[in-house]
Write a structure and sequence with these properties.
62 residues, 2 strands, alpha+beta, two-stranded parallel sheet
């Protein structure tokens, strides 16, 4: 999904870093293009310019 899971990553601050990424993508003023290869779901999908951001182009490959 894009984010690593586990105690090691949680202690390293993955939630804080993920929040910074969501803020950066949400506040950017450039056109957003998204290419998804394989499955994409959860917080990783949202943070990496998923459908909720209304990307100008969203292409999914199985």
């Amino acid at each position: 999904t894009g984010f690593m899971v586990g105690r090691k990553y949680e202690n390293a601050g993955i939630a804080k870093d993920g929040a910074k990424m969501v803020t950066a993508v949400a506040c950017s003023s450039v056109p957003k293009f998204t290419v998804v290869i394989g499955g994409s779901f959860g917080a990783g999908n949202y943070a990496m310019c998923g459908r909720a951001y209304g990307a100008r182009f969203l292409w999914m490959w199985p």
